[in-house]
Amino acid sequence: MDTDVTRPEDQARSLARILREEGLAEMEVEMGDQRFRLRRRREPDLLPAPRLAGDDVEQALEALEGLAITSTRVGVVHLRDPQLGTTPAPVGATVEEGQVLAWVQTMGVHQEVRAPRAGRVLEALVAEGDPVEYGQVLLVLQGGN
Amino acid sequence: MFKKILIANRGEIALRILRACRELGVRTVAVHSEEDRESLHVRLADETFCVGPGPAAQSYLNIPHLVAAATIAGAEAIHPGYGFLAESPRLVEVCEKHGLVFIGPGLAAMRLMGDKARARQTVVQEGVPVLPGTDEVTDQDVAREFARRHGYPIMLKAAAGGGGKGMRVAHEPEDLERHFLTARAEAQSAFGDGRLYLEKFLPRARHIEFQVLADSHGNVVHLGERDCSVQRRHQKLVEESPSTVLTPELRREMGEAAVRATRASGYSGAGTVEFLFDPQSGAYYFLEMNTRIQVEHPVSEVVTGIDLVKEQIRVAAGLPLGFSQQDVQLRGHALECRINAEDPENGFAASLGTIQELHLPGGPGIRVDTHLERGYVVQPFYDSLLAKVIAHGSNRDEALARMDRALHEMQVRGVHTTVDFHRRLLQTGEFRRGEIHTTFVEAWMSGPALEA
After folding, report:
1. B335 CA to centre of own chain
2. ipTM (interface pTM)
């Protein structure tokens, strides 16, 4: 995957990877005027490590002043409007509070995912038609105070 | 055989099912709440889905999420384990609609045996004895009339019940009045169904249940009995097989009654037919049928050498049972102790916390089914079962000695457990002599024995 170290989300990801690979519990990094602190949960011995959990993502987001939009359903995510075929909240778009960002389809029912506040779509962590679990981060919103 | 199964449970039973799948070469999909993200069966599964937050109502009981996860993962079947959705006709319906196999009985058999009054009628037609009892009782006059005719004590039970909820014993008319309302309220809140029925209560009876297995080709076998008389507030604490009070003749007779009851309900899969047994008269009475794999299934597994969970999966896949009744032999004696995160010194209050240290017993004849590991957090959302310690010996004395030795070895730090309580219980003269009954634990605990 291409990473651009000038993008804050890629910086956070790189840090998360270093943390995991080095087996560190916590690290704090200063880059220019930005400061990151990442903390990781206890890793159990012998068995496969748990996946990067919601908490870690939240820590990274805090540094970015980002807001994670998570799925409250298990199902298939749609970033495109199932009726119109348009994408209401592509990366880079400015969205209003309460605007529909995506849909999660569970057993045939489309559940709307709405913006809890206004902002800019910083990143989409899922693609159209991806399966998603409860709590999975779908989009990251930034700004909008 | 299935290629992939979704395990709709948590804790030790999720791990037990995962192990059976691995041995059968079936891939596994684990589901979990946010709180169980790091649990053992999740880490061992081939695929995982977080299906909701900690409270079970929003995660392990969330049928749309479970079925969506199964469909997305391409699982062909759902194993419900015990508890949660194991006896939910709704899940069976939704599975059928979405082309998924529910690993358990069909809808009709589950509904029939889940309705205690209809279950009674069904087995009576098969000549299986039942305790004097009633159909659904809606008003207290009918209850009082029943009590006049059959005498106290009387047991009030929830029609949709199980697990001791909505059950009350009335020893005199005042009890009946009081318990009628509380039992109905309890049944309503636990099962969403406040219907009650009454049964004559036998205070010194034994709870003896027969494990059955049925395939979809009309074969039904039983795997002998489990004596689950050691209970506290209708919750089983210790189970053993064989029972110390059944003769081979009675075992055959009750086993055949269990098979008839199973066949009459059109059952397939693993199930348990529960009886009350009166050691004085040698009479037995059908109580109910549990349409699921049970917590205490390992007791039957170690005395018969049959892997019940694998058989359950095989018959759900449409395969015939690989053995007949004559092939089932009970070898030696087995006991199971349920180790709970509870404080026996404090009214068995739930004990929450993180497991700081853990040593599990082993050695000859010992099996431990548990999801525990160091760092595991005992959550308030789920039941308190931490581990099942199963001891097998060539006879009861050896099984008892092995259990005592195993419980002595077992170390759990971080939460209160019932390990020491079990050791003391198993050392009582009554238990040693096999003189146990369903109210024995309460009687023993109210006596001076606990302070000794």
Report:
1. 15
2. 0.84
